[in-house]
C-alpha cells in the first residue's frame, strides 16, 4: 500500500463526508448537511490529504493566516488506515506549509486527547466556544 500526500489537492464534499464517516469524526460533524460540508471543505485555505490511489484516506483541514495561527479544524484518518503514522505525517506536512512563528491550534475529540501531548502539543484551558445563536452580550 502506497500512501500519497497532497497539499491543497481538490477534495469533493462527498469524499470529505465519506472519510469523516469512516473515521471517528463523522459523529461530531454535520455530515447530513451536504451544503455545510461543501462549504467547510471549499473555504479551508490549507488542506493536506492522504490518498491510496483515488481513495481519500486522511485529511488535515485548516484555516490559517500562515504566519501566526493555524486552526486545524479536522484531522481525520479512515479507521482502516489508523495507527500507520498517517495522522502524524499529515500534521508534519501541515506544519511545513506554515511560517516559522505559526502555531498549530486544534480542539481534540474526546477520545483523542491523549494523542496530542506525545507529539509536542501543549494543553490549553483558554479555549472558548460560542455556539450559533448564543448570546453575544450587548454587541450592538
TrEMBL record:
InterPro entries: Acetyltransferase_Butenolide, Acyl_CoA_acyltransferase, GNAT_dom
Gene3D superfamilies registered for this protein in UniProt: 3.40.630.30
Domain N-acetyltransferase span(s) in chain numbering: 3-140
SUPFAM superfamilies listed in its UniProt record: Acyl-CoA N-acyltransferases (Nat) (SSF55729)
Alphabetic keyword roster: Transferase
Pfam family for this entry, one: Acetyltransf_10
One Gene Ontology molecular-function label: acyltransferase activity, transferring groups other than amino-acyl groups
Name of the protein: GNAT family N-acetyltransferase
Organism: Alcanivorax sediminis
Amino acid at each position: 500500500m502506497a500512501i500519497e500526500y497532497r497539499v491543497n489537492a481538490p477534495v469533493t464534499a462527498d469524499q470529505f463526508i465519506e472519510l469523516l464517516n469512516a473515521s471517528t469524526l463523522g459523529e461530531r460533524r454535520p455530515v447530513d448537511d451536504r451544503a455545510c460540508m461543501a462549504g467547510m471543505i471549499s473555504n479551508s485555505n490549507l488542506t493536506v490529504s492522504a490518498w491510496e490511489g483515488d481513495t481519500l484516506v486522511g485529511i488535515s483541514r485548516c484555516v490559517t493566516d500562515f504566519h501566526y495561527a493555524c486552526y486545524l479544524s479536522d484531522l481525520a484518518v479512515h479507521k482502516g488506515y489508523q495507527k500507520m503514522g498517517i495522522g502524524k505525517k499529515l500534521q508534519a506536512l501541515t506544519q511545513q506549509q506554515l511560517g516559522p512563528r505559526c502555531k498549530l491550534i486544534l480542539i481534540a475529540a474526546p477520545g483523542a486527547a491523549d494523542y496530542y501531548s506525545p507529539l509536542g502539543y501543549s494543553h490549553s484551558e483558554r479555549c472558548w466556544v460560542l455556539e450559533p445563536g448564543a448570546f453575544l452580550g450587548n454587541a450592538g
